Amino acid sequence: MQESFRDKQQKSYTLMRMTYDLTMAVLILGMAVVMFFAEQLKIQQIMEVDNTFRYLFGGVCLLYGGFRLYRGIKKDY
User: Fold this and answer.
1) What is the pLDDT of residues 62-73, one digit of tens each?
2) H-helix or E-strand containing 69?
3) What is the pTM of this model?
4) Closest-CA residue to 34 (of 52, 61, 8, 15)
């Protein structure tokens, strides 16, 4: 009985963590897209920011979002 509870608890934790990682990956990758394509999307507040900072921040978001996506798909918790 105790093992069954532990297994259920572990599955619940894995599902919650996977959902969290995938959601954060989508949000962070979305921020990367916004940073890279601000001119095409015509977002004035982001277009006013220095291009070097925008592309650097977009690159960091792309890398970290990709890492979160990989970790959510791998499910090795």
Assistant:
1) 999 999 999 999
2) helix 51-74
3) 0.85
4) 61
